[in-house]
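Researcher: Dear colleague, please comment on this protein.
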Amino acid sequence: MTDPIPASAHGLRRVFRESIVARDLAEPLASFDATSIVDDVREFLVNRPLTVLGIRVDGILAGFLHQGRLDDRPIAQQMHPIAEAAVVATTTPVQEVVTLLNQHSFVFVATLGQPVGIIERHDLEKPPMRMWLFGMITLFEMSLTRVIDQTYPNDSWVCEMSEARADKAKQLQAERARRNETVRLIDCLQLSDKGQVFAKSDELRKRFWDRSKNQIRGVIKDLESLRNNLAHAQPYAATNWDAVLRLSETLDRLLEISPDYVLMNSLQPFPDGAPEC
């Protein structure tokens, strides 16, 4: 039986679901014995600095402490059991880690049932996560472009835009043509322009994205802000958390869109002629 989904689509799904996992973001989990002196533990946490510390009982990691909640009681009396924390395997996909970090301030990463690493929100600033997020935004924009292109053939989407934004795209296309680059007019649009075209279509919103026009425009604006911070190596885990969470929650749905909308046939000729509005 022939698989209806092209191998390239399988590869795309594998990249986003399996290529970057919890171990790529985790930091080693420091730990102390439950019999350790409180002042030594406090000094260690402050000097590193660390937010969370593992606590060992008989050589096995059995609990943890928060720096901000540390008091003068013996360590064994104030440690929290591991069962109270979120724990994932080293191979857990990053989108699951993001979901857990929306519910917890940190996530433990375990090997053979023992936590050996920790992920906090600021760890999402690392290059692997930046690559994953930038790829997700690119995949989202490619899908959006393909949906618009197939819904509005022969650049008829121009009629859904303001004259000023359409002229801006035409100017960019002309400039790129001057540099001997062959590009379609739709590829000269900004992500916000594509979002506007999509949001104005009741059919597209009903079929692909059951949200109001304003909600879609807000999401697109957040994604543009996140992409700008990623492109310029700026912090984003705090300022763009909603966009990060939304991309993670949307991954499975985005990868379920028909490959016809995501994968472009490079042999397909560009349509000729300008649309009549």
Q: What stands out?
A: Confidence is low (pLDDT under 50) at residues 1-5, 262-273.
